[in-house]
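Exercise: predict the fold of this chain.
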Amino acid sequence: MPIQADAVPRKLADPFDFGGGHMNPDRAADPGLVYDVDAKEYNNFFSCTVRLLDGCESYQLNLNLPSIAVPNLKNQVTVWRTITNIGPVESTYQVVVEAPAGVAMSVEPSVIIFTAGGSKSVMFKVTFTTKQRVQGGYTFGGLAWSDQSAYSVRIPIAVRTVIQDFVADTS
């Protein structure tokens, strides 16, 4: 039986209802990669949410959270994230993409190599492109960085395609 959301009216649960997944406490102590963010970025994000700053779309899409939400995808949008290696100094990670339904998703670079003496942090970009011009609800996917052995760091992705700004999905 599918998971039901505790809502009125009843509906099938989606990742907004049941969260981003299971966390393994043993593996969380040694994750390999982290999405680090400092207090200044949170302050800027907060100032945007209460409309104290202009040009806030960049902060809303690019705050370095371990998740990506694109609430209004019309054609194409690119978001940026930075990962920091806190695992083995010499390591290589490949991206594994699970694109949301109706959305093409690309990640550059698709392979990240950390070396001794090199940078511990790498910025990557994720580009989302609509494959269908429909006014839709949220669809879900994921992006994982895997070293093919001990580490796999996954973030959830939620994307809502829109045709017109004034049409809102309230579900």
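Check your answer against the key: The chain has a mean pLDDT of 86.
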